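Q: Sequence in, structure out?
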Amino acid sequence: RTDSATLVRPLWFMTVDKERLKEWSMPDTRLRLEGFTNEINQNMPGASVSTGVVLGLINDVERRGFFARVPLLLLLAVLMVTVLFYLSMMVSGLVQSRERDAGLLKTRGVGTLHLLGIYAVEGLMMTSVAVGLAPFVAMGAVALAGKLPYFSDTTGGDLLPIEVRPAPFLLALGVG
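A: Exactly. Output:
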């Protein structure tokens, strides 16, 4: 019980193992600290818990993480616009080169539906090869990125670890 009549006001300090704290994610750390604060406040009425320093650090890291992602998002947007631009240029060139072939086939009696069928089969074959190979190429490129100097502190010069999961295959199928 703490009131003005008491002669002593206890103050407790707790130490935290830094290595165990590093294993927790930011949301997990925030949740555990809030749970600790709530538990102390429920079991010792009138007590106050100050975890402000740690929570302040977590907020600072989260804010810095957000601002670190903004340039990456902008770079990704520029990359996507560039890829779409070159893809449209390539499709435009492909259509112009196939215009002569389509004209020749039309003069030889091939109907529009038959011509669309030929192009659809060709497109499906190219797409199926790309859908089948793209996840493996992407996983290989990610694994090889561990050899880059940027990741050498994290990986020790080894390959980045990858896990074969269905998400890359589903994404490739959706894009295809």
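The helical segments are 18-23, 26-43, 52-107, 112-144, 152-155, 166-175.
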